[in-house]
Design a protein that fits this description.
Chain A is of the alpha/beta class. Chain A has seven helices and six strands, in the order E-H-E-H-E-E-H-E-E-H-H-H-H. In chain A, strand 4, helix 3 and strand 5 form a beta-alpha-beta unit. The chains are: A alpha/beta, B alpha/beta, C alpha/beta.
Chain lengths: ~180, ~250, ~350
Amino acid sequence: MINERIVMAGFGGQGVMSMGQLLTYAGMIEGKNVSWLPSYGPEMRGGTANCNVIISDNPVASPIVTDATAVIAMNRPSLDKFEPSIVKNGLLLINSSLIDKSAERDDIVAYDIPANEIADELGNSRIANMVMLGAYLEATGALKKESVLEALKKVFGERKAHLIPVNKDALDRGAELVKGNSCG
Amino acid sequence: MAEMVFQRTKGLQDRPFHYCPGCTHGIIHRLVAEVLEELDVLDKAIGVAPVGCSVFAYDYFNCDMQEAAHGRAPAVATGIKRVHPDKVVFSYQGDGDLASIGTAEIVHAAMRGEKITTIFVNNAIYGMTGGQMAPTTLVGQKATTSPFGRDKDHAGSPIRMSEMLATLDGPAYIERVTVTTPAHVRKAKKAIKKAFQAQIERKGFTMIEVLSTCPTNWGLTPVEALRWLEENMIPYYPLGVYKTSEEVK
Amino acid sequence: MAKVLMKGNEAIGAAAIKAGCKFFFGYPITPQSELPEYMAREMPKAGATFLQAESEVAAINMVYGAAGAGARVMTSSSSPGISLKQEGISYIAGSELPCLIVNIIRGGPGLGGIQPAQSDYFQATKGGGHGDYKMVVLAPASVQELTDLMMEGFDIADQYRNPVMIIGDGMLGQMMEPVELREPQKRNLPPKDWATTGTGGRGHTNVINSLFIDPAECEKHNLRLKAKFDEMEKNEKKYEIFNCDNPDLIAVAYGTTARIVKTVIDKCKEEGINVGLIRPISLWPFPYEVFEEYADKTKAFLSVEMSLGQMVEDVKLGVNGKKPVHFYGRTGGMVPVPDDIVAEIKKILGGAK
C-alpha cells in the first residue's frame, strides 16, 4: 500500500512544477490515484514555487500535503519552510549544490544531492530536477523509473524526444547517490 | 377604381402603439420596419429591445425579438449575431440606455465592428421614468433631476455619441438624422436602409442616430416640440454622415 | 477514452467543448483565467466561438443573447466578476434561457484575495440577483467530478431552460488529476423551438423577455417558474454519504473542503473516533431530507466551510433541531488544516459526553 505525499519546492525556473507533474503522470500510468496541486498567485511571483503531489492506492482525500512523506528542497527557503512538515521516518532530499545546510531533524531520512553540479556534468543545467527525482524514486521505490520515462515521452512529444537520454542519465545519477550515500 | 397608395408595413404588428401623442418613436419604428420589409429580411431579422420608452418594441416589430437589460442591448445583439452570422440583427435603444448605462457595451460593440445595426433614438431626456436628465440633455435644459436647467459645471456637457463612435475603426456607417419633416423622414429612411445594407454586406458596425421629440416630458405641444428640436438640438447635434468606411463608400 | 492528467480549469473547458458548447463569453480574472485562455486556444479548433467581452456585465449579456438565439453557451468568472453578472443571471432565469456559469470562488468581500474560498454560497444558492428565481448549483470535489458535472450541467440547463452554476475554487481550478471525459446519462431534452432564429416561415415571432408589466401576468409567470423550480428540486439533488455507519459525528462539507474532511476522517480513525461525511454535491437543490435521516444515527453535526458560516444554515434546516449543529470555518483564502478540524471534533465530542 503506498500513500506518498510529496512537497517539491524551489525557485521559479528550477523545474519544480514540471518535476511534480511528471511524477504525477507516472503514478497515473501505473494506475495509482494521483493529484498535483501547485502554489499559485503572488507567492509564485516572489520567486518561490512549490507543488504537492499525492500518489496513493486509495482515492486521494485532501490534495494538500500537510504531513509530507517526502520533501524535495531545491533551495534554502524551501528547506527551512518544509522540513518541519515531514512525518517521522519521512524522506528529505536536499539540493546541496545550492543549500549549504544539512537536515536539522534526526528522525527523518535525509540525503544531500548536488543536483546542479551533476546536471552541469551531464551538460544540461536544466535537469537538476531530474537528478532529484531519480533520487526520490530510488529512496522510496514508490514508482518505476520506466513509468517516469514513459511520462516524459508523452510530455516531450516528437519535438523534444532527443532530450530523453540525458534525462534518463540524470534519473540514474540521482538514484546512484541514494544507493551509496545515505546520511540519514 | 381607387389606387392603393399607402398601406401598413408587414414589418409591424397590428397593435396600437403606447407612445405619447407627438412622440416620434412611432415614425422611427415604421421606418425600420419598412426597411426590413423592403430589403426582404423580415423573416431573418432578430431585434433587441432596450429599457426605456421603447421597452415594448418587441410587441411592435414583426420579427423575432429579445428584450435586453438596461444598456446591454449591444452585448445581447453580439451574442445573437455570433450565433447567427447570416441573420440581420439590430438593437433599438434610447439615449439613457445607449449613452449612459450602456456606454461600455455600445463602444465595444462598435470597436469590434459587430455586424449589427443600432438605431439610437436621442430625445435628450429620460422619457419612460418621467423626464429625468439624460447624458444628452442640453446645457440649460430643464429636467426633473436638473430642475434649474442642466448646469455644465455640475453635470458636464451632453455627449455626442455619433461623433465619439466615429473615431473608432470598427464602425462601417454612422449617420445622424431626424424625423421632424417629411423630407427629414425620407432622409432618415435612406440612412437606415444604408446601415442595414452595410450590415447585410458584412461591412462592420452600423448606427443611425435619430434626433427625436418628447413633447410630454419637454412640456411642449407636438408641433412646438418639433420646432424646439430643430432650434436647439440640431445646432448641438448636427445632422450628417459621421462615418463611412472605405468598404461602404 | 483513456485517462489524461488535466488541470481543473482546463478540464472545465475540455468538458464544455465535449458537451457541445459552441460559445464562450468571458473576461479575465484570477484564479480562473486559464479557462478563457484554454477556450481561446481550443474552441476555434472545435468550430466554436470564444469572445473576450469588455466586462463581466457584457459577457453575461452576450450569453443571454446567444442562449436566446438557441446556442449552447457558457461563461466563467471568479467572485467579484460573478457579482457583476448577477443582473444578467436574473434576466436569464426570468427569460427562461439555458446556460452554464462557472464561479471559481476566491476570498471576499470586495476585492478580497485570490486564494480558495466558499464564501459565495449564499450568493449562488439564495438568489444573488433580484427576483424569485433558483438555479441548480453544483459543487464538484475532484477534477473528474468537475468534468462530469460540467457535461451534465449543460443538459440540466437545456432540460429546464434555466441557468446552472458550477462552483469551485482556485484549488480545484489549479490542481491536476486524471480525467476521463464521459458522456452523462441521456436526458430527454426538449427542442429549442422558442429561440430567436429569425421567423423563417415559422408563422409567428419568438420573443425572449422577462417583462410583465401587469402584476397579475407577472405573478402568473413567477408561479409557472416556481412549478419548474419545484420539479428541479425534486429531480436534481445530488450528494455523497461517506463513512456514515453510526458515526460519533457527521461532518458536512462540499467541494475541496470535503476532500480535506476525508483526510480528517482518516486521522480521527487512528485516534478511535468515527467521523462520517455528508457531502452535498448539489448546493441547490440542497439535500435537506438526508440530514433528518442521519440525525438519528449520530451525536452531532459539524459544518466545515471556507467561509464564516453559510451552508451551516441549510444544515440546521435539514437537521431540524434533532441534534446539535456546529460550525468550523476558515475564510479570506485560508484553507482549513486537518489537525485543526480534528481538534474541533474532539472538543465537540468531549463536550457532548
